[in-house]
Amino acid sequence: DWLRITLPRLALDLIERGLDAVTPPEAPRVIVDGPEQRAEVHLADAAAQALGVRPGQKLVAAQALAPALLLHRRDRLGERQALELLANWGYRYTSRVCLEEDGGLLLELRGSETLFGGIETLLATLREDLLSLGYEAVLGLGATPAAARVRARVARRERTRSGQVFPLARIALEDSGLDSAAVAALAATGIRTLGELARLPRAGLARRFGQKVLDHLGRLRGEVKEALVAWQPPDSHHAWLELPAPCASHEALVFPIRRLLADLCAVLQARDGGVQHLTLRFALESLHGEGRAISGELCRLEIGLVEPGRELEHLLGLVRARMESMRFPRPVLGIHLEVARLPRFVPRHPDLFGGNGDAGGWNSVVDRLTARLGESALLRPYWIADHRPEYASRWRPAAAGPALLHPPEGAPPATARPLWLLPRPLEVPAGAFLPISSAERIESGWWDDADVRRDYHVAELLDPAALPRTALGWDEQARADGTRGRPPPARFQPSRGARAWIYEDLRQPGRWFLHGWFG
To answer: Which of 246, 268, 368, 390 minimizes the C-alpha distance to 316?
Structure first.
């Protein structure tokens, strides 16, 4: 029912995830921990172990055995970040995930076995997913969380037992999870295995060795309940990746960015979520040549999508398109990925013939154009809840979301509205138009000192010669509004009978203004 996931090579896996796995290391690698003067080997790869380097060794002794050792400082913050990422990933398989203090995950699988086709199929799927994420894991199964931990501890030393259910009675007390003082006291009386411990009378066991030993046996058997703290996935996503060497090439940065985005997509798949806006920050090398010290200067890259998505290749393509226009003043030392909000992902329903419809393809085109040209190059109109026609719509970046198809208050008004509004209302002679509709009164805008009181009419043009030149086209008025340099649109030549949208300013009775033309 319970699965314990232990990551025995977590620190090494984090280093190798930042490197190209196709290129073998030039020298054996070790992870060192502790103060500079008393550094010890925390982990060693296979090449270093073949030379006699072992975890727990003094660094000086390890370098005497292998002078060409490649050293990496242990990154505890990165390990915690990786465990939290895997805790989010675990929600793909179960709703009950626990992040344990000693650097492991605990998953309750009772409700997931049938869904994934049995426990063996589920364990195989878990192993494949962990390997694809770049982690080597040891699995321990048990009817209780304590039993799963014990089997994972044994499997860490004997990898062939990973994921197997074997009797606990023959397990040595050193692997039982008891503290070293209790193990030493029990060994002094000749108790070496869990089976021998379980056969002792409970009253005498508690009296001689303490209640903690008895409680531990109860947790293994399921007689004593554990207070487990369930992991709560955050509403945002943050990831930091330090590069093994300073990098100034855009193509070389694609590999670590792909790794960050792959982790993000794994979390989104597990949470059934999507991403609509992400930010990449590139930490640059210090300007004063202080080695690998990060100066705090960052280059920022933002990506927006029309609708939430979680396809790795699509996200990577948008990042690469945006990076083509970026120039890094100095080499990059690290990359930080931030997603402030993880909206719900709603998959697009396929059409009758199995496709995704035209909308999905169009949104992908908009995303790619925005990434290549910039957010300000591709705009969409959207409605604003304002009765004044000149304030009722605005333009916004297409990546900010789809345009609204209807006004915010619901259905469009029953009165006619022209599709062509002038940039600003233009005063016209009172006899140039003949109103042919009843008045539509608009009184609004008192809150922003631009209040209006108008009676709008649909009207027919009687005398084109009476119109000012600016009413015949956009050229002069566009220049007056400060849009010099833009190509003027085609000149409009209204004829007698053309329909327009005019209004009388009720604050100045008798003054009429032209606001738009009907097609």
So the answer is: 368
What is the DSSP secondary structure assignment for residue 348, as one 8-state letter? P
- 8 A C-beta contact, residue 294 and residue 287: no
Residue 77 has pLDDT above 90, yes or no: no
Reading the block at residue 325, the tokens are 């226009």
The two tokens of residue 277 are 């806006």
Nearest one of 250, 403, 213, 222 to 328, comparing CA atoms: 250
Per-residue pLDDT at 474: 47
Between CA 128 and CA 211 the distance in angstroms is 41
The lowest-confidence range among 55-59, 299-303, 345-349 is 345-349
* SS3 call for 399: helix
One-letter identity of residue 426 = L
Order the strands of the 97-100 sheet from edge to edge.
97-100, 104-108, 2-6, 138-142
Q: Are strands 393-397 and 499-505 parallel, antiparallel or unpaired?
A: unpaired
Amino acid at 139: L
Say whether pLDDT at 118 is over 60: yes
302, amino acid identity: E
Q: What's the pTM value of the predicted model, to 2 decimals?
A: 0.67
Q: Which tokens is 232 given?
A: 């709560």
The SS3 call for residue 518 is coil
Planar angle of CA 479, 418, 509, nearest 5 degrees: 80
Q: At 482, which helix (H) or strand (E)? A: none
Pick the closest to residue 420 from 516, 493, 500 (CA basis): 516
> What is the distance between the alpha carbons of residues 2 and 4, in angstroms, rounded to a whole number?
7
Query: 183-224 pLDDT, tens per residue?
Result: 899 998 899 999 999 888 888 888 888 888 899 999 998 888
Is the CB of residue 498 less than 8 Å from the CB of residue 463?
A: no
Quote the tokens at residue 138. Answer: 């040891």
